[in-house]
């Protein structure tokens, strides 16, 4: 398997994880879903792979729409879930995270949760794992299933 294939495989797995994060979470109040579930990312490669992997899937009875967005609030205001790859770390850190009410924020850099994210992918023994900050999710009107939390490394607010 060459580097591109391995990268596509890793991206496909992360897209599958994001799908399950969404399926096993509830958006409350203003965060309620409308029309379609919007999975967004500034990473065009992630968007392309996620479109293929998630074609025909639904979240809470709504079709998934995968969108390429710029990391500016106006572009991301309709996103239910935003995936920020490592290539966009600097742009991510510069954003005002208070603008992301009702959006699940998923990333892959070591300091992603420290800088306002909710879920971070990491590699452990060659496998993709994830950590979750459930209190940060609740602050934006999203509650993740305990079934998913049991599979994660849970990060409390004090540990960030």
Tell me briefly what this model is.
This protein is an alpha/beta fold and 160 residues long.
Structure description:
There is one protein chain. The N terminus is likely disordered. α1 crosses α2. β5, α4 and β6 form a beta-alpha-beta unit. It is globular and about 35 Å long. The strands form 2 sheets. Strands 3-4-2-5-6-7-8-10 form an 8-stranded mixed beta sheet. The chain has 160 residues and is an alpha/beta fold. The protein has 6 helices and 10 strands.
- Shape by Cα distribution: globular
Spatial order of the strands forming the largest sheet: 3-4-2-5-6-7-8-10
List segments where confidence is low: pLDDT < 50 over at least 5 consecutive residues: 1-6
- Helix tally equals 6
Report strand %.
Answer: 25-35%
Oligomer: single chain
- The helix/strand series, from N terminus to C terminus, equals HEEHEEHEHEEEHEHE
Percent range of helical residues: 25-40%
Observed structural traits:
single chain; 160 residues; 10 strands; globular
What's the topology here?
Blueprint: H1 3-23, E1 25-27, E2 37-41, H2 44-54, E3 58-59, E4 62-68, H3 73-76, E5 81-84, H4 89-94, E6 104-107, E7 119-124, E8 127-132, H5 134-139, E9 142-144, H6 146-149, E10 153-154
Parallel strand pairs: 2-4, 2-5, 5-6, 6-7, 8-10
Antiparallel strand pairs: 1-9, 3-4, 7-8
Helix pairs in contact: 1-2
